[in-house]
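User: Structure please.
Assistant: Input sequence and predicted structure:
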Amino acid sequence: MREEAVQKKETEFAQKEQQLLLKEKTLALKEEELLRREKKLDNTLSDTAFVYDAKLIGPWSVKMNCIETTCAGSAVGDTKSETWNFSYQNNRLIAKAMTGEKLVRIYTGGFTGNGIELTEDVKHSPSAPATKLLVRLTLTGDNSMEGRREIVRENECNIAYAIQLSKQ
């Protein structure tokens, strides 16, 4: 009877040991994942050092002129006008593009060594192909910027605009 009790205790001890080993392995995997995420975040932050420029905040008038296109329905010389409202959110520069009172897209990005770089990814849907928008801007004065807006769609469809921004 005593041997059975000892054997039962040993079995329980072995099961608890297995549970602890499993828990330890789970914690080690979680720690690895956290370290991987932390490293990725550190790399992201060091690649895009946060720069805050209060002069950017607020509405800007944007004039776009198509300078290159390989897409049907688009022509060199096409023009567009929008208002972009710049702000900062979570250490990222945000530009909300408006046509009249309608929000048409939101760009996110920040400063690079040469100026400002903003992007917007439009996911593929039945009504629209996957699209990548890239905006590169250079400050030309306290109230002016200029640059280039590129639209890249599937099937080698690319549109480029020269853009000029004026602070409102």
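The first helix runs from residue 2 to 47.
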